[in-house]
Hints:
Blueprint: E1 2-6, H1 10-22, E2 27-32, H2 44-48, H3 63-70, E3 73-76, E4 78-84, E5 89-94, E6 100-104, E7 107-110, E8 114-116, E9 129-130, H4 135-148, E10 152-156, H5 160-171, E11 175-179, H6 191-203, E12 207-209, E13 214-218, E14 221-224, E15 229-231, E16 234-237, E17 241-243, H7 246-250, E18 274-276, E19 283-284, E20 291-292, H8 297-311, E21 325-329, E22 332-338, H9 341-346, E23 351-359, E24 369-377, E25 383-390, H10 394-406, H11 431-444, E26 448-450, H12 452-461, E27 465-469, H13 473-478, E28 485-486, E29 504-508, H14 513-524, E30 530-533, H15 536-549
Helix pairs in contact: 1-8, 6-15
Amino acid sequence: xxxxxxxxxxAGTSAAAKARRNDEDSEIxxxxxxxxxxxxxxxxxYFIGGEVEDKEELTPRDPEFFKKKYNIDIHISHEVIDLDTxxxxxxxKNLSNNEIFEDYYDRxxxxxxxxxxxxxxxxxxxxxxxxxxxxxxxxxxxGFIDSNKPKSAIIIGSGFIGLELCExxxxxxxxxxxxxxxxxxxxxxxxxxxxxxxxxxxxxxxKVMLSARVETILEDGVKLQNGxxxxxxxxxxxxxxxxxxxLAKAGGIATGESGAIIVDxxxxxxxxxxxACGDCIEQYHVVTGKPVFRPLGSTANKTGxxxxxxxxxxxxxxxGILGTGIFKVFDLAVAQTGLSEKEAxxxxxxxxxxxxxxxxxxxxxxxxxxxxxxxxxKITGKLLGVQIIGEDGVDKRLDVFxxxxxxxxxxxxxxxxxxxxxxxxSITKDPVMYTGMILDNAIHKERRLMTIDExxxxxxxxxPYKIIDARIPKQFxxxxxxxxxxxxxxxxxxxxxxxxxxxxxxxYCNKGTTGNAVQNxxxxxxxxxxxxxxxxxxxxxxNIKKHKKN
Length: 550
C-alpha cells in the first residue's frame, strides 16, 4: 500500500509516524511545500524575543530523521498542485527546479494546515509588514529586527499570537502599540475577563487601541479609518488564521460552514481513502456537539495520530474538543475552555455565572490571586466553560476543569474532587472546589449571583432595589458601587428591620465571600429575592469602568 501525506508539520508527521508504527510494509511519502518540518510554531514568539536562543530547538527533526527512524520519505519544497481523487493521483511541483511530476496513492492524508488571514488593508504587502505562521515568517521578522533596529512596532490583532508578541517584542526593547478592531482584547474571552488582560498590558507600557480599524499601512506606521495616524517602524498582522483547503476543494472534498474540511471521527473525508487532520479540518465541540474550527498544535497532533491509526488498519475515534487554550502575556497566564458566557447564551443555554477570586496557594507561600469565571447550565447543573487569569497555578486548575467538562461533570461535583493539598501547592479548599461551591449554591440553594451587566439591566428596568456594601466603612469610603449603602457584615443583623423584604436586595463585598454571608442572613430572615454580586467589588469595579467606556 502507498500512503501519501500532504503537509509535514504537526498533523502530517504524526499521521505518518503512527501509520509506520502499525505497518512496516507500506510506502509512506510526505510532500511539504515549506522548507521546515515538524516545527514548534507556538515557540516562535519566544525565539523572536530571545528566550529561545537556537532556531534548531524549534525544528529538531529533519527529513533524514524521519527516513532513518521511520523509513518515511519527506520531500521538502515540494508543493502538491493538483489532486484527482477519482484516479487517486496527485501532481507535484518541485519548487527548487520547477519540475512537475505525478504520483499515486492508495490512501491519502491532507494536512495542509492553516494560513494567516491578511485583511484587505492598503499597503499590507510592504517589506516592514509581517505575519507569523511558520519558521520562515519568524526568520523574516528577526532578520528585519537585526538589520533595521526598529524602536517601535504596531501589532494588529489581540489573539494568542498578537499578545505573545507584545511581550516578546517589548522584552527586546521595542515599544508596542496594539490595535484591535473589537471593543476588547482577547476576542475569545468574555469582556469582563478581557479587561484584566487590557489593564495588565497598559501596566506593562503597551499602548492599547480598541474599536480601531487600520485603513492604510504606511512606511512609518498606519492610518486608522478615523484619520488618526499611529507611528510604527514595523507592523505585525495577527488577525487570525483560516484553513488552507484550496487543494482539498479542487479534489471534491467537502468543507463545512467554517470553511474547514469536514471529517468523521476517523478523520475520513467524504471521499473514500482520503483523510484529513490538523489545522485544515473542522472539529466538533464536546459540549454542544456542533462543528467548530479551533486550530491548535495539540489538536493537530491528536488528529494526526487518529488519521495515522485508521489509514493503517486501526480504529481510533476522535472525541471532540473544548477549544481549550492558554497563553502567557508578561506576568499573566490567560486560559479558557468550553463555552464563554456569550457563546452559551447565543446557543440558548440558561446560564449561571460565577466569578471566584482566590489565591493559588497561601499568600505566606507566595500565592497569587486567580480570577476564575465559570459558566454552568442552570437546568442541568453541568459545567459549560471556564476562563482563568492569574500569575500562578492557572494551568493546573485549567486542566482540572477541562477534565471535569469532558466527562460531563456538574458544578456540584467540583467540591467533591479529592485534589492534592499542601501549602506549597494550594489552599485547603482549592479554587476549583470553591467554584463548585459557588455555582452549586446559586443553582440549588437559591444563593443567586448577579453580574454587573445584569445590575445595569435591573437599574434600567425601574424595579425597586437596594444595594448593600457589606465591607468595613473604610473600604466603602474609599470606593463603592454607585447607589450602595454601607452595612458592614459584623453588625448587619442590627439593620434588618430597616430593610424591605419585598424589594430586590443586592449584596457585595471585596471578592464575594462576605457578600454571600450577608445574603445568607437575609434569606434566613425571609427576604425573597436576594443577589450577591459575582466576584464582589473587585470584579464590579472593572466592569463598571467598561460600561462607562461604552
